[in-house]
Design brief:
heterodimer, A: mainly alpha, 8 helices, 3 strands, B: alpha/beta, two-stranded parallel ribbon, nucleus (chain A), TIFY/JAZ (chain A), CCT_CS (chain A), Tify_dom (chain A), Protein TIFY (chain A)
């Protein structure tokens, strides 16, 4: 959940900056670019931040030619003409299995799935993306796997609000008690209890007869949003 | 005269040959809502008698009916419970302004419900003005007021309650989001009330209250049996505890001083339900002198590790209810199984994920569950977050936990490899063995339960009325099989499942008792209109489209959180809502067509 936002922002390609002569890709440059970039691209294992545009899917296509494949990668754009659809499927299969292999650790699933399944750049439960998902020609298995893993990333097990609040307050107590924690003893050390008021992150009230003046406490702002 | 009486008896005798007088005497003894429901369907006269004599109504979703309809049928109601937001609101999944406003209900109560003594609002939006109206109109007779996980009001609203509700025996504010202006409300309560029995502002952030007012309440209210407060230094309660002579339940408080200072605190003699916030291993011994009396222990907000749990639990042979986090560990569960033979309810919540915040031993798995099942045969309620699971452990529960009526299992997602998946056979064994099961929740991961396993749930849960299913099944086929069963299922919640709108719609139409559906995470149709296959009279369908919400995560950093879309659908006699916020969209078959 936490990592998702950042990786999403990286997905957007910055086309204009990296071009050889500053032009947005037009048809004239297509062949040249294709021949220069292709081997590098296909050789790369890490396909983060890569958008694949499916021909004719209506998403992310940059031209009208039906067998044209456009690949955005790491700030560059490659356009390939006359790619047969089976080849495109192979390329997508390679890309998505490479991504799936990288995302074996569930914790990173959020980042990987978000960036490597461009046809799922929006939540599967939004209507428009279902078109690409339902495409009959694309291999179903890897997409399905990433869609499930994407689903899991977008729907992490939700935390109960009351407990979330408790964890925040516990963390505040630790921070206020021991601003320079010893990394080897992360557990609460009872023998280092300072004179603290109960709800350190909230204003002092009658419940907290704090002997420590308020300026000495550095309360953390309550961090939850209801 | 006698002739007339005979005539009257003849005309007013109900079909079963019982006179109304007799029926009027018998009916007040029928309490179960399902029985009452059956009674009211026999004939018009029985319906009327039920309406006259029914004392309590629970409206599981406030939008299923209207205040007006309630008044027309049950004008003499003494006790009302209303629920608003979907249960998912407790997990921060529902927009705050979703709805569930008490205002129309309060206005109706103020005007017409003259016998109402007990009011319970759960997950609803309450305003200060509502509390003022309530206090003004019903303050003299109100005995029970529960604002349970509510929001939208401040301590100003509570002032009205404190001033005007002098007969209040129960004031319950647990987990409500209350804007705190001052602690005057508790002072008003202390000064005006002498009959309080249950006072609860646990898990609110009300800290401007004064412990002197608490003491005053304890002194004035001779029947004060249950007090649950927010974080107040325990040492400040040295006057309160002796004054609360008949106190049985206490939760809340806080430990901020040196541990040895707490050994001087003496607790009331009848105290048997306890939960001390921030209690650590060094303060724990203060509980030992009366641990053997404890029937209920709340360790959710304590600071104990696995070993501490073992030390404490083994001293509590009479424990019936335990709530804690998974820091209890398998070892703690083994101690529990050995020591607490009377255990009826166990809730094990998920601890923090942050490094070092919880005990390394703090994982619960099949090992703990098997010990628990064998040791605690009286278990009725079990809710647990596990890190690992096997079919065998579920089979054990099916074999031993014959009294289980409520079972909830969440498989945490930290561990990549789970010992024994899918859980098809274990789930089947559990459902077949636990014949009293009424409530069931299973939250797994892809691969956790196959379509066959999902069909088992449908097949083997004849009495289950509520279910939460997360990441179960593999395809629509599984859901469709499931929906052929579950004959008693009234309320279904699903999350993270792979089912299509079409399958969901068919499911709704097939589940014979279903009156409420909530889904988050599903396969949307291209047009978004497949859901309309479930359109029918009296069935409201609402969507909360996908949202992006800026929130603070566990370490306090702002992140953008994606909230996938929700579907909420329910039977209603009151037609579609009229108070939708922007985040909620009704699906109107006529408009969408």
């Amino acid at each position: 959940m936490e990592g998702e936002a950042e990786s999403r922002d990286e997905v957007k390609p910055n086309v204009a900056v990296k071009e050889t002569n500053g032009d947005i890709i037009g048809d004239n440059d297509v062949g040249k670019l294709g021949s220069v970039e292709a081997p590098d691209f296909l050789g790369k294992k890490n396909v983060r931040n890569c958008s694949l545009a499916m021909p004719g899917s209506g998403l992310n296509t940059t031209s009208h030619a039906p067998s044209q494949l456009t690949i955005f990668y790491g700030g560059s754009v490659c356009v390939f003409d006359a790619i047969p659809v089976e080849k495109v499927q192979e390329i997508m299969l390679i890309a998505s299995t490479a991504a799936a292999a990288n995302s074996a650790d569930m914790k990173n699933a959020a980042t990987d799935c978000a960036t490597t399944s461009p046809v799922l750049t929006r939540s599967p439960s939004l209507q428009s993306t279902a078109t690409a998902l339902a495409s009959p020609q694309a291999p179903v298995y890897p997409l399905q796997r990433t869609s499930l893993c994407k689903l899991q990333a977008e729907l992490p097990i939700a935390r109960r609000h009351s407990l979330q609040r408790f964890f925040e307050k516990r963390r505040d107590r630790l921070v206020n008690r021991n601003p320079y924690p010893n990394p080897s003893t992360p557990k609460m050390a009872d023998d280092t209890k300072a004179n603290l008021s109960a709800a350190t992150s909230l204003e002092s009230g009658c419940f907290e007869k704090s002997p420590v003046p308020q300026e000495d406490l550095q309360p953390k702002v309550p961090t939850h949003v209801a | 005269m006698e002739e007339n009486d005979n005539k009257m008896n003849k005309t007013m005798t109900s079909p079963v040959g019982m006179s109304d007088v007799v029926l009027g005497c018998v009916m007040p003894y029928i309490h179960d809502p399902k029985d009452r429901d059956a009674v009211s369907l026999v004939c018009r006269r029985w319906y009327e008698l039920d309406a006259l004599t029914r004392k309590h109504i629970t409206i599981a979703l406030c939008y299923t009916t209207s205040p007006d309809r309630l008044r027309r049928r049950f004008q003499h109601l003494e006790s009302l419970k209303l629920k608003g937001k979907p249960r998912a609101a407790m997990f921060n999944l529902i927009p705050e302004d979703w709805g569930g406003y008490v205002t129309p209900w309060v206005n109706e109560i103020a005007e017409n419900f003259n016998c109402l003594k007990s009011l319970h609002f759960r997950r609803m939006i309450v305003k200060d003005s509502d509390l003022e109206v309530l206090a003004r109109s019903r303050g003299k007779v109100l005995q029970v007021l529960k604002l349970d996980k509510c929001s939208g009001f401040s301590t100003d609203g509570l002032l009205h309650v404190g001033r005007s509700c002098r007969q209040l025996k129960t004031l319950f504010l647990e987990e409500s989001l209350i804007v705190e202006k001052d602690g005057q409300w508790l002072h008003e309560l202390a000064v005006n009330n002498s009959v309080m029995e249950t006072l609860n502002f646990y898990m609110t952030d009300l800290v401007k209250v004064s412990f002197e007012d608490l003491e005053l309440i304890a002194r004035n209210c001779r029947n004060l049996a249950s007090v649950k407060i927010s974080d107040c230094e325990i040492l400040d309660l040295v006057g309160f505890f002796p004054a609360a002579a008949v106190l049985e339940e206490f939760c809340g408080g806080s430990f901020n001083e040196q541990p040895d200072r707490y050994y001087a605190v003496s607790f009331p003699p009848k105290l048997c339900r306890l939960g001390l916030t921030y209690m650590g291993k060094n303060e724990m011994p203060i509980v030992f002198p009366f641990a053997s009396l404890l029937k209920k222990l709340d360790l959710l907000y304590a600071l104990l590790d696995t070993e501490d749990h073992c030390l404490l639990i083994q001293r509590c042979p009479n424990l019936e209810v335990l709530e804690t986090r998974n820091v209890i560990g398998d070892r703690g569960l083994e101690v529990l199984a050995r020591s607490c033979k009377r255990l009826k309810r166990l809730r094990i919540e998920r601890g923090a994920d942050e490094q070092g915040m919880e005990d390394e031993e703090g994982v619960v798995s099949q090992r703990g569950l098997m010990a628990l099942a064998q040791g605690c045969l009286e278990l009725e309620y079990l809710a647990v977050y596990v890190s690992d699971i096997t079919n065998a452990s579920l089979e054990y529960i099916g074999t031993y936990s014959k009294n289980l009526s409520d079972f909830r299992l969440v498989l945490l997602d930290r561990e990549e490899r789970i010992t024994d998946l899918p859980l098809d056979n274990g789930v089947r064994a559990l459902l077949r063995g636990c014949e009293k099961l009424r409530r069931f929740a299973l939250y797994l991961r892809p691969g956790g339960l196959t379509d066959v396993g999902l069909s088992y749930i449908g097949q083997y849960s004849p009495n289950v009325r509520w279910m939460l299913l997360g990441y179960v099944g593999e395809s629509d086929a599984g859901l469709l099989e499931f929906s052929k069963g579950c004959p008693s299922l009234q309320k279904l919640e699903m999350r993270g499942c792979c089912f299509s709108e079409h399958a969901l719609a068919v499911t709704v139409m097939q589940l014979t008792s279903l009156r409420y559906l909530w889904v988050q995470g599903y396969r949307a149709s291209q047009s978004g209109r497949d859901l309309l296959a479930m359109a029918r009279p009296f069935w409201n369908i609402e969507l909360i489209p996908a949202r992006r919400v800026v929130m603070n995560d566990q370490v306090g950093e702002a992140v953008v959180v994606e909230h996938p879309a929700h579907i909420l659908a329910y039977y209603s006699l009151a037609g579609p809502r009229t108070d939708f916020p922007e985040t909620v969209i009704p699906l109107d078959p006529l408009v969408a067509a």
